[in-house]
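Worked example 3. Consider a protein that binds magnesium ion.
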Amino acid sequence: MRSGKFFAYLRIMSNTILIGAQWGDEGKGKIIDVLTADADVIVRSQGGNNAGHTVIHRGKTYILHLIPSGILRRNKVCVIGNGVVIDPIALVDEIVGLRDLGVTIHRNLLISDAAHLVLPYHRALDEQRELRKGRARIGTTKRGIGPAYGDKAARTGLRISDVIQPSLFSKKLEGKIRENNAILRALGAKPIDFDEVNESYLAAGQTLAPYVTNTVVYLRRALQRGREILFEGAQGTFLDIDHGTYPYVTSSNTTAGGACTGTGVPPHRMDRVVGVMKAYTTRVGEGPLPTEDARVTKMLHEMGREFGATTGRARRCGWFDAVVTRYATMINGIDELAITNLDGLDNVDPISICVGYRLNGKPLDVPPCDSTQWINCEPVYETVRGWKQSTRSARKISQLPKLARDYVSRISQLTGAKLSIVSVGPTRAETIVV
Ligand code: IMP
Ligand code: MG
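Given these inputs, the predicted complex is written out as structure tokens:
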């Protein structure tokens, strides 16, 4: 009895939140895919189809936007939590696309009835706002994410529970379209056609209905049965609506706390936070990136790397920034680190590491609140020697060149968390568990 309880406790002890420690695209998809081996349930808690998680499995490349990456493994349940904003048509497309690739989607996908919907007027408004901002634009993915979360916060959003109740949905939608068309017309944009949206959303709602449930209750039961849950973060710490480079952020809480509010799983059930970060830094879209470097960007692009999975945009690249990863450790309570894309630095020598900032001559070891100040921060670099050889075949930390080992230990030390995974290539096999 006693030992049974003890073992149940041990299993519960590994509910893991995985988050990005930089500006997104840290390679979370791959690390989630690796960690999924030990999890029973994989949950998305925030973001929408602005996310793009690339996973390579058995020679096939999968790009997932809304469905947790765990879907590629058998006997795992994937949950889209209440904190996610769902474009139901994009979700249906994703399900169909995965099925075409031979992935089974049956009882292994659950969708929260409380998740908010992304509607065509959200996308139209996203585009209009960006256009109007001109050079001050955020560089959004134009998926309607900001306006959808805006409606949620304004208490005027439509949810999954609405779209599976046809007459209720049509009524609510009519009012929403009328209101938003007035705005779109005033902005000189094309109004949205009610019938078209009503029809296509209700059809998507019907396809999704079998997966829709109260996921809070499902997750609670899963925990009671000792199931291990992996919370799959999307975007990254500095795209967080509260803690990121505001206003150059996304509209959800991408940090560890978002895993609780976005799923209804209480904080004391979370046991471990894994922070994923690249061995260098990238971001897509506008906003601060103090270590941005034209040579690093050119080199990575010439290697065919760092093009966005969702929009195909070329990412901005720079040196590793320990100011941001250290702050990410603070905000998320990162216990363990997964360093990805180490192989991206295989041909670089010397390598710079940003260990602090200077703003108007004053040293800073945490980023400033204001994005304009953040943009003006000058990185303080320390320089280390590069290893100048391929790391792709290393499967144990001891198989990495000494200088590469020194580099990963230095960046973990500066970040202030324990190193647990190093990724040296895009496939599952190209992973070192420390
Ligand atoms: P939104 O989330 O589409 O509103 O975009 C806001 C900002 O977040 C833009 O800079 C986007 O490029 C960025 N962003 C959104 N989703 C992702 C992602 O999954 N990876 C990287 N950047 C993202
Ligand atoms: Mg991505």
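Take a moment to read the result before moving on. The domain at 116-212 is CATH 1.10.300.10 (Adenylosuccinate Synthetase, subunit A; domain 2). Residues 166-186 form the longest helix (21 residues).
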